[in-house]
Amino acid sequence: MPKTFYLLLAVQLISTVADNAFLIVAIARTIELEGAEWLIPVLKIGFTVFYVMFAPIVGPVADLMRKGRVMVIANLLKVSAILVLISGAHPLIAIAVAGLGATMYAPAKYGLITELLPSHDLVVANGLFEGATVTAVILGTVLGGLLISSTMLNVGDFEPFADYGLTHTQFIAGMFVLLMLNAAALMLSFWVADSGARYARHSFHPVQLIQRFLEENMTLWSDRQGGLSMSVTSLLWGVGATLQLIVLRWATESLGLPLAQAAYLQGVTALGVIAGAIAASRTVPLMHATRTLPLGIVIGCLIPLLLLVKTVLVASVLLVLVGALAGFFVVPMNALLQHRGHTLLTAGRSIAVQGFNENAAMLLMLGIYAIAIALQVPLSTLLIGFGFIVACPMLVIYVIWTKKAGDTNRKMAIDNTI
Predict the structure, then answer these.
(1) CA torsion, ordered 20, 263, 280, 116, to nearest 10 deg
(2) Distances from the Cα of 367 to the Cαs of 48, 119, 198, in angstroms?
(3) Cα–Cα distance, 169 to 33 (Å, whole number)
(4) Residues 184-214: pLDDT tens digits?
(5) 110 φ, ψ to 5°?
C-alpha cells in the first residue's frame, strides 16, 4: 500500500472519532436545552441531509480538484461546526455545518482509494479502511460518553472557561476536545499527496449537473453487480444509522444505563464490525462478494432478540455478533460497488452516487424513526419493525440474485454445448 493510503487512514480515524463523539455531545446538549425527544434523530438527519442535497455537485468537485485539497476544505468546515456549537448556537445548526463538511469529504477520501489502488487490492484496502473507521466509531462513542461524563463536567466548571464569555453549558470542555481533534485532522489533510488522476472537465450548470447525475445513477443501478451492491449497502446504511440511536434508547430504557454508559455499549457493536471486516478482507475475494448475501437475512433476524436481553454482558455478546456479521457482509459488497462505480464512471462521481443513495436511505429511515417517536411507538415495535425491514428485503434480493445467476449459468452451459 502507498504511504498516502496510510495517511488517509490516519485522517479518517481522527475525523471519524470526532464525528461520533460530536453526535453524543450534540444529543447531550439537546437534552440540556430540554429539546423534544424527536429532535435526537433530527440531529442525525441534519448531519446527513447535505449528502443528498449536494450529491450532484460533490462528485464533480472531487474530480476537478486535488482530493487532498477537498479534504482540507471539508475538515475546515468541521472545525467551523465546533466553533458554532461553542458559540451557543443550537446543536442542529452546528451538526448541519459538520454534515456539509462530511459531504465534501466522502467522495474525496473514497475516490482517492480507487485512484491509488488496483481493483484486486480494493477488498483488502476496504477491510483496512472499514477497520480503521469502525475503530474510530468505538473510540468516538467512548470519547463521546467521556465528554458528557461527570469527569469532564467538572473540568467544564474550570474558571478560565468562564473568563472568555463562552456559552453557558456544562459540556464546554468536551467541545474544546472536539475542536482539537478536528484541527488535527485538518492539519494532516495538508499532507495528503496528489494521486495524479485527472478527469475531463464538465459544466457546473445546475440543470446539466442534475441531468448528468441522474444518468450516472441509472448507469450504476442498471449494472447487474452495481445495482445489487447499491441496494444492499443503501439498505444496511439506512437501518444501521437508525439502529445506532435505537440502541442508545434501548440501553437507557431496558438496561437503565445513563446516556454516557449507553454510548459505551453502542461502541461494543463496532468491535464486532472490526472483526468481521478483517475476516472479510482476508477471506473474501472481490469475485465472491455476492456469496455473503445470506448474512443480511441473519442480521435482520438477530435485531429483535435485543428485546429478550436483560443484562449488559448478554447485550454486549449479541451486539458484537451483529457487528461481526455486518462487517463481514458490508466490506465485500462495498468493495464490489466501488469497483463497478470506478469502472463505469469516475472515482469521485461513483462515490457521490453511492453516497446519495445510502444517505437517502438513512434520511428515510431516520425520518420514519422521528415520526415513530412523535407518535410514541413502543420500543419493542420499533426493534421488530427494523429487523423486518432488513430481513425481508434481503431475502427478496437474495432470491432474485440467485435466480439471475442460475439463468446466466444455464445460458453459458447451453452456449458451450453449441
Answers:
(1) 10
(2) 11, 36, 38
(3) 9
(4) 999 998 887 665 555 556 666 778 878 888 8
(5) -75, -35
Q: From CA 418, how far away is CA 165, in angstroms rounded?
A: 83
How many structural domains compose the chain?
1
Domain assignment present for residue 70? The answer is yes
Whether the CB-CB separation of 81 and 57 falls below 8 Å is answered with no
Per-residue pLDDT at 418: 47
Query: 264: Cβ–Cβ under 8 A, 6 or more apart, which residues?
Result: 141, 142, 145
**Type of residue at 114:** T
C-alpha cell at 324: 461481526
List strand residue ranges (DSSP E) for 100-250, in order.
none
Chain position carrying cell 474544546: 176
Q: Compute the residue count for the chain.
A: 418
> How many angstroms separate the CA atoms of 379 and 373, rounded?
9
Asked whether the beta carbons of 238 and 365 are under 8 A apart, the reply is yes
Query: Is-contact 121 129, C-beta < 8 A?
Result: no
pLDDT of residue 374: 86
Q: What is the pLDDT of residue 413?
A: 43
What does the alpha-carbon distance between residue 201 and residue 85 come to, in Å, rounded to a whole number? 37
Helices and strands per DSSP (H, E), number in the chain: 16, 0
Q: What are the grid coordinates assigned to 230, written together?
A: 447499491
Would you say residue 412 lies in a domain? no
Within-domain flag for 185: yes
- Banded model confidence at residue 157, pLDDT cuts 50, 70, 90: low
**pLDDT on residue 178:** 94
Q: With a cut of 90, say whether residue 18 has pLDDT above it.
A: yes
pTM (two decimals): 0.72
pLDDT digits (tens, 9 = 90+) for 213-251: 888 889 888 888 888 888 888 888 888 788 878 888 888
CB atoms within 10 A of CB 281: 23
Q: How high is the pLDDT of residue 417? A: 46
Are 142 and 38 spatial neighbours (Cβ–Cβ below 8 Å)? no
Q: What is the dihedral of CA 385, 316, 142, 52, to 10 degrees?
A: -30
CATH number (domain holding residue 258): 1.20.1250.20
Q: Is the distance from CB of 265 to CB of 315 less than 8 angstroms?
A: yes
Contact 276, 236 (CB under 8 A): no
Asked whether 367 and 337 are in contact (CB, 8 A), the reply is: no
Domain that holds residue 186: 3-193+212-407
